[in-house]
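Entry for the shared binder. Reason: the reviewer on the internal report wants the predicted structure included alongside the sequence.
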Amino acid sequence: MSPALQPDSSLQTSNIPSQTSINPTLPTKRDAINARAAAGKRRNFNPHAFLATIGEGRKPVGFKKRQTIFAQGDLADSVFYIQTGKVKLTVVSKTGKEATIGICGDGDFFGEASLAGQPLRMGSATAITDCAILRIDKNAMMKVLHREHEFSDMFVAYLLARNIRYEEDLVDQLFNSSEKRLARILLLLAHFGKEGTPQTVVPKISQEMLAEMIGTTRSRVSYFMNRFRKLGFIHYNGGLQVHSSLLNVVLHD
């Protein structure tokens, strides 16, 4: 065959379509199942279980009644969560005057100012009753807040509620009489306005402590407590029982 009649091999191969390769990175059915399982694992985080168990950076500690949990001026390197018990938060002035700024109970956090960069404790925390408390290191708390949205949502909601309470305390201190302030504190201690059934104020709160909380003298607290009892707003029966009728004192102009 002459060279002029020989077929052009380059033309023949160019007309054959090349085989398309399968992309090995395309998701498979197994990948989708694994992704759903991983997402389900993330959603299964339980904030309450986290706060009830031992783990990285968190450990349970017990405190007896009247035992100091931390003192004003201590290093602020952790957050505390009350599993059971009641804790008193106090501040002492340079002149030695002490003021009670809050009472925390089951399910409350305290010492959270350390998360905002507070190097030293601005106040003290003391157990009013025997307490079971979870101590969470600052770094561990920051990690779970960044990693678990459900936990961070719960914690932010708690901080907002506490901030609202502090604002209400300030308004109460500025505008209400000491009698109204005492009535409000007793109602708060009895959990009026919260979910669930109001309870007897346990443990017994001393009149000195109530006086510190509302900014008055013990004698004035004693006078108002006797008045509340005679009016049937409170009574003593192995503890201080607060009735909803005490709201009349708060709402009365």
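Summary line for the report: Residues 101 and 120 are 17 Å apart (CA to CA).
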